Amino acid sequence: MSEIEDLQVRIAFQEDSIEELTRSLLRQERRVDELEQLLAAMRHKLLELEQKSHHDVGANHGEIPPHY
Questions:
Q1: Residue 22 belongs to a domain
Q2: For the residues of 4-55, what is the DSSP string, one character each?
Q3: Is residue 10 part of a domain?
Q4: 1 Cβ neighbours under 8 A, 6+ residues apart
Q5: Residue 33: is its pLDDT beyond 90?
Q6: CA distances from 55 to 44, 48, 51, 52 (A)
């Protein structure tokens, strides 16, 4: 194989490798975006539950529990 052919093969291999790495990176970016959205939704839900819990405790403040 001549030096030119060897270089052409190397370039072709490197181009394929770069394309595969790019596809992998794009998949990972999409997954990170999905996970960030899920985390934001969970954070929002947790804050809602905390607020509801504090509200429920405040609404019952001073009341005697039913088992007394």
A1: yes
A2: HHHHHHHHHHHHHHHHHHHHHHHHHHHHHHHHHHHHHHHHHHHHHHHHHHHH
A3: yes
A4: 9
A5: yes
A6: 16, 10, 6, 5
| Residue 11 structural domain | 1-55
Name residue 22's amino acid. T
- Overall pTM > 0.85: no
Number of independent structural domains in the chain: 1
Per-residue CA distances from 14 to 5, 6, 26, 38, 53 (Å)? 14, 12, 18, 36, 57
Residue 17 lies in a domain: yes
Query: Is residue 45 in a domain?
Result: yes
Rounded distance between C-alpha atoms, residue 43 and residue 49, angstroms: 10
DSSP state of 61: T
